[in-house]
Specification:
five-stranded mixed sheet, about 170 residues, single chain, 4 helices, two-stranded antiparallel ribbon, about 30% strand
Amino acid sequence: MKGKKGVTLCATVLLIALTLCACGQQVNMSGYETEEITVSGLLEDEFTITPQELSELECVSRSATGATEKAGTVSVTGPLLDTFLAQYGVKKEDFTKIRFLASDSYKTVLQGEYLTDYEIIMGVSNGKNPLSEGERPLRLLIPEAESNKWIYSIVRIEFERAEDGL
């Protein structure tokens, strides 16, 4: 009986720790928390996610400074792409390309070393502050990558496997 209580206690502590690690309670997404981001190629059918749903995952906070003055310094809080994908039983390395498309039709495509060597943050806020109006509903930050990959105003994410040929 003692062993079952210990396992139950450990599971409860882990659940509490994971809940506390989520960033939803730490950030202000007032005004865009329910904006939809379309996801295709991850499951059989397209689906949508929201910044609120992403904020309920384990989150990290990161900053990076771009090579140019225009790029500036970007700070975000949100889940790692790896954390998001883990809930679907996949890793970013399972894909040949991942496209992030912005509301203004700008896009960035991640492939090769970006899918194996880089930490990719799906930013739902600027720390405790909401994303600016022009960055909403989602901002991508790859701290070690060139700033042209730091797309914002993401409204669609497309996952491509070798057999998909999108």
